[in-house]
TrEMBL record:
Active site annotation, chain numbering: 211
Compositional bias annotation for Basic and acidic residues: 47-56
Name of the protein in question: Galactose-1-phosphate uridylyltransferase
Keyword set, alphabetical order: Carbohydrate metabolism, Galactose metabolism, Metal-binding, Nucleotidyltransferase, Transferase, Zinc
Gene source species: Kocuria varians (Micrococcus varians)
InterPro entries, sorted: GalP_UDPtransf1, GalP_UDPtransf1_His-AS, GalP_Utransf_C, GalP_Utransf_N, HIT-like_sf
Family: Belongs to the galactose-1-phosphate uridylyltransferase type 1 family.
Domain Galactose-1-phosphate uridyl transferase N-terminal: 68-221
Annotated region described as Disordered, given as residue ranges: 47-75
A matching Pfam family: GalP_UDP_transf
GO molecular function, one term: zinc ion binding
Length: 386
């Protein structure tokens, strides 16, 4: 297989050099390796990417099992993916499907004896295929669950987390996110590309191996749509940029700001919903990973690793705080009202051994109640600065 020349940095001092190699798995899913190790950068080692598994070719599930329907009461899209019901769930260490080939007792999804960072199409995707309308009535609207779902393996090691990758490897993951944003946003049916990570059984992870995912949506997710409406209203009323004005307000008040760099600001949201929560926002209106310069990506990587380290020290006696991390990139279509990308990280852990459960008012009505205050959350994050 040949490396992708567009994303291969030939000079050691030219940004962050990564060698990119594409291949296909046995059922024709795409797999892409992002190598930062010297033997691959120099060309001493290359990848063959031969998947020997006897997998059947991919087939789209029937529409009765996979579709996207519009909620007639709210207008929100809801994806149905019944084919995911029996996907892999918390396998033992020797059956890790994200380990390099040959390390376990089951065939790996990654047919190479080692890797640095790798991205491949999800074997059990929620979103897949082209966008087609299946039902178009005033109340009942249904389409195919178009888009794409990918898995991002941060490391070949089953133990560890993003915070323990080291700056260089974490920076390679940022390059992988950039590459995938560039390609997925170019897909005709895609309106937003969202990398995210779920960590911890409390969150509902099905694999312990350090990894994240990328969803390329063909319908604007409800949260993004709500922010877009709010931003449009704000611009119409004030002429301002909602994301910029919120950032300026947080910097002026200071009390919820937890860290800053020349290009990025981390703060706890004014109306934080979760017991542990923060956002990271660029100072300028960078729309997505492809819009970031190498120095901005360097800063973001160091800041993100630092903040995740603080997160793991947030509660005394807890070494691995469960969290969800979502990278909100600006939609590719639908208006210019959202000016920039942002990162949102939050945890369901409210105290050692105690989880925040979304009960009646929150789950049923979206009427959030937080058991702490954003200012207390921010103060704790500042205390943990190394």
């Amino acid at each position: 297989m040949n490396p992708d020349p567009a994303l291969l940095s030939p000079e050691a001092d030219a940004g962050h050099p990564v060698r990119i190699t594409r291949g296909r798995l046995a059922d024709d899913r795409e797999i892409i390796f992002f190598d930062d190790s010297e033997p691959y950068l120099s060309g001493t080692l290359t990848r063959e990417i031969h998947d020997p598994r006897p997998l059947d070719p991919r087939q789209l599930p029937p529409h009765e099992a996979a579709a996207t329907r519009t909620d007639p009461l709210t207008g929100d899209p809801v994806t149905l993916a019944a084919h995911r019901m029996n996907r892999t769930f918390l396998p033992p260490a020797n059956e890790d499907p994200l380990a390099p080939a040959g390390r376990g007792t089951v065939a790996s999804e990654i047919p190479e004896p080692n890797y640095d960072v790798v991205v491949f199409e999800n074997r059990f995707p929620s979103l897949q295929g082209d966008l087609e309308t299946l039902r178009d009535e005033p109340l009942f609207h249904e389409t195919t669950p178009a888009g794409r779902c990918e898995v991002v393996c941060f490391t070949p090691d089953r133990e560890g987390s993003f915070a323990t990758l080291g700056i260089s490897r974490a920076r390679t993951v940022v390059e992988a996110w950039t590459h995938r944003a560039h390609e997925l946003q170019a897909m005709s049916d895609v309106v937003q590309v969202v990398p995210f990570e779920n960590r911890g059984e409390e969150i509902g992870v099905t694999l312990h191996h350090p990894h994240g995912q990328i969803y390329a949506f063909s319908d604007l997710p409800p949260y993004t749509a709500a922010v877009q409406r709010r931003a449009a209203t704000w611009t119409a009323r004030t002429g301002g940029d909602l994301l910029q004005d919120v950032l300026d307000g947080e910097l002026e008040q200071k009390v919820r700001v937890i860290a800053q760099t020349p290009s990025w600001v981390a703060y706890v949201p004014y109306a934080a919903k979760w017991p542990v929560e923060f956002m990271v926002v660029p100072r300028r209106a960078a729309r997505d990973f492809t819009d970031l310069s190498d120095p901005e990506k360097d800063e973001l990587t160091r800041l993100y690793v630092d903040l995740l380290g603080r997160l793991d020290r947030f509660f005394p006696g807890i070494q691995h705080v469960p969290y969800i991390s979502v990278w909100h990139q600006v939609p590719t279509r639908g208006g210019p009202d959202i000016s920039r990308m942002w990162l949102h990280v939050f945890s369901v852990l409210r105290a050692p051994g105690k989880l925040k459960y979304l009960a009646g008012a929150e789950s049923g009505l979206g009427a959030w109640v937080n058991d702490t205050t954003p200012e207390r959350i921010a103060a704790r994050f500042r205390e943990l600065a190394s």
